[in-house]
TrEMBL record:
Keywords: Coiled coil. PANTHER family: ABC TRANSPORTER ABCH.3 (PTHR32114). GO terms for molecular function: ATP hydrolysis activity. The keyword Chaperone does not apply. Transmembrane segments: none annotated. This is Rad50/SbcC-type AAA domain-containing protein. The keyword Glycoprotein does not apply. GO terms for biological process: double-strand break repair. Residues 5-250 form the Rad50/SbcC-type AAA domain. Residues 228-282, 310-344, 403-519, 544-578, 616-656, 696-783, 810-837 form a coiled coil.
Amino acid sequence: MKLLKIDFQNINSLRGEHHIDFTQEPFLQNSLFAITGPTGSGKTTILDVISLALFNQVPRLGKMSTNEILKKGAILTRNQSEAFAKVTYRCKAGIFASTWSISTARTGNLRDYHMELEDLESGALLDLKKSDVPAKNEELIGLSYDQFIKSVVLAQGEFAKFLQVPKKERGALLEKITGTEIYRRIGQEVFLKNKERAAAIDAKKGKIETYKEQLLEEEVYKLKQTEGEKLQQEREAIKSKLERLAKEIDLKTKLRQEEAELAKTENELRELKVRQQEFDAEKGLKLKRHQEIQVYGDDLNTWQSLTEKVKDKQSEITTASEEIKTAEAERNRLKHEISEVFKLDVSPEHFSKKLDAYKTDLRKLIAKRNTIATSFTNTKTHLKSLASPLHFDSDPSDSTAFEAEVQRKLTSKQKTYEELEVRFDLKNQAVSDKKEKLQQQLKQLRQAEKSATAIEHLKSVLQERQNEATQITAQQKGLPEQLHALKSQIELKEAQLEAKQSKLEIENLQKQLSDYRRELNDNEPCPLCGALHHPYAEDLPLAENGLKTAIDTLKQELNELSKKRTATETSLSQLEKQEKLIQERINVGTAQLKTEQENFDKEFKDLLKEVSAGSFRELENSLEEQERELNQAENLENELKLLNTLKSQAEDLSTLLKQGKQVSHEIEKRFTGKISEFEHTINSIETDWNRNEQNLQQQQQLLKTAETTAKQVQEQLSRLSEKLTAALQQKGYDSIELALQQRLPLGEAQALATEHQNLQNALLRLNTLHSKLKEAIASLKETAGEIPLEELKQQQLKQNEALTKNETGFNEVSRLLKNQKQNLEAIEQLLQEINTSIEESRHWYILNELIGDSKGDKFNNFAQDLTLQQLLLLANKRLIQLTDRYRIDQPGDEEDDSLVAIDEHMGGQRRSIKTLSGGETFILSLALALALSDLASRNIEINSLFIDEGFGTLDPETLDQTLDTLEVLQAESSKMIGVISHVDSLKERIATQIQLTQNGQGYSTLKVV
């Protein structure tokens, strides 16, 4: 996996849009680069952008959400409304761009973040929800978020500590660096699981002891069983006595109830007989007379119905006669209205025929008038539309004025056109042809003018470049002499320095011999010559301390002269390059000017004969004036055609107006109303006439039918009256009306009949019940014993008390026996559960013995040893690329707790890491950091690394050695390595830099140099 581009906007202190393209210069030439800037300027923000765009997570903050951004005030730059982070990377699957973004709504609230992933090779956005993008990036890259951070951001500083700390601290630090806290948690979880299982088993054992404490002793248990059996027998005897007493009490109670019911029934019989006597006296006679008359009920009903029917028919005859008079009056009114409005005389017999003929004629006239009106309106509208461009003062509706104005305009424009026609000879050539030829002339003229301007511009540019070449030549003058003088000065200073250094070496040698002389003592032989006297040892000369100062001064002067020479050489080289480049541009410009001038002379040869160099504009103005006049002639042609058309259509409009007036006059002679209301008026009158005629016919038919029916009903009524009168007189009723007075209403008659029947039924029911009760009482007296009911109840009460006492004792014994059984069953169940739990927990017990403890140290230490072995193996592989001298190993039993460096240059000597220099320690810690990257990436090739710590504490010599190591690493692995630091000396050694600069408002800017 390799990072290709980083794009972001408004992330932390980096306000605005920023772009870092690792596929362009200067990164193509230098894959080792520095990210520099003061503390707080946003150097690590670049790493935040990468992890945010890929995984929606940021180191130190974790997963990002709208709430997290608001709560922590992170990611989005202060006072900004939107932000995004985009990373383009290459992996085995192709090239992808992952984007994270967020923005503020119009309400001022922060919207939820958005993520998307684009396949740049196909140009397609992957169909993913925002929450799925981090997982897809993990799949494509082959690394999770934690693995990615450990693989790309090297924790070199942590490993520098790791190399020297004791074993106990080394384990904690390795756990932090590698993120292997899981092994400690596993050991703790195993311990807790085993502890929980053991506690559960102990709890069940405790329950067993509790149940055992509640068990009865064996002798007590047997006594309680015997006691329970005895109480059971007593209870059965008591229940038998209670059943016998209950039966006797029921018989005695029922006898009392039957005797009470008999007394009640006898009382009801007496009351019922009194009610029957009262009914016969008050209502019986009325019911009897009604029933006598009701024999003739059907005939009486028919008589009443016929009588009412005769009255109804008389009423219908009266109503129909009045309606006929009203309809005839309405007919006369309508005839008068038709005569007034339509000038038409109608009769009932010929109304429809005459009206249809009238409607047909008038509709034809109205249709003709409407057609003329439509044509008039359309023609007038068309005239207005045609006349609009010519700005007429009169309206087409005023045909006389409009025609006169058309003629005036026609005469005026015809005169102007004839003048232009003569001027441009338009009789022999069309205006359009004239215009086309003129436009071609104008086009050629404008092209010539444009080309002439371009040639003048080329001449001006060429002159500027020649002036620039002259200036560069002037700047070069004197630089070779300066360079020669500097070289001479450097050679002189180098000779002086060499002489001073030789002199210093001689004096240092003399100083060493002087030290030996000072150690010689009189009467002791010299080790070299054997002399016993040493006169030269006295008054020894002092070394020249001023030589060192002089040498340092010469070195400084040489350094300054070398810098001046380098600067002069660089300036001379740059000026020579500029001179060469400008001369090339002058040559190209001269050739281009020559070509342009030749093309111009050739293309516009004919045109140049007509105009001088300064008269392009005059000729162009003349041609443009001719073009305007030709346009005017063309417009006049069109306007003359239009005016002739208007003249013809104005005459048509006048004719339509006359025709319309004639038809309207014809309509007005035959219809006095508004023409627009003709259909409504005639349809309304026709509807009223037809409705009135229909009503008149209906009423005449109703009158005839009512008279016939009334006669028939009257005859039926007469025959029935004779028959009923004779029959009723025999019953003592002089007339039908008197007989009808004795008839009760149907509801009242039915109520009286029902009341009479209910009395009879009640009497029968009570007599039957009275007989049955007497028989039942006699039977009960024979069955019931002699003991009184109250005494039987006393005996029942005593037996119930005995039963309650028995059940209390029996229940207590049963409870004890049941508890004994349940406790024994519970103990058995718990023993089975304990055995099952022990079997199920066996693997947790074994795991706890192997890796479990309360702090998780046992399994964590084991896992850390394995991790350390793997890490050291990978680190030593990396060390081969960095140095052939050292290897890293774990300490032996006789060595201190810190890691050991094996020095291959010293025959494999084992040295404590603490004895290494800062630069050597950095190389080893860098190897460990790279090893962790290899371990985390699981053989995924990572071609982008960032080192975010460790440089601020290095001395200059160690820093140089460190940078040499990084350059070797970059060259051998072809990785892109970014060094994040604020150390100034890095800027001198690493040419390619991403520089961050703070302003006074808390924001930073980014620049790639």
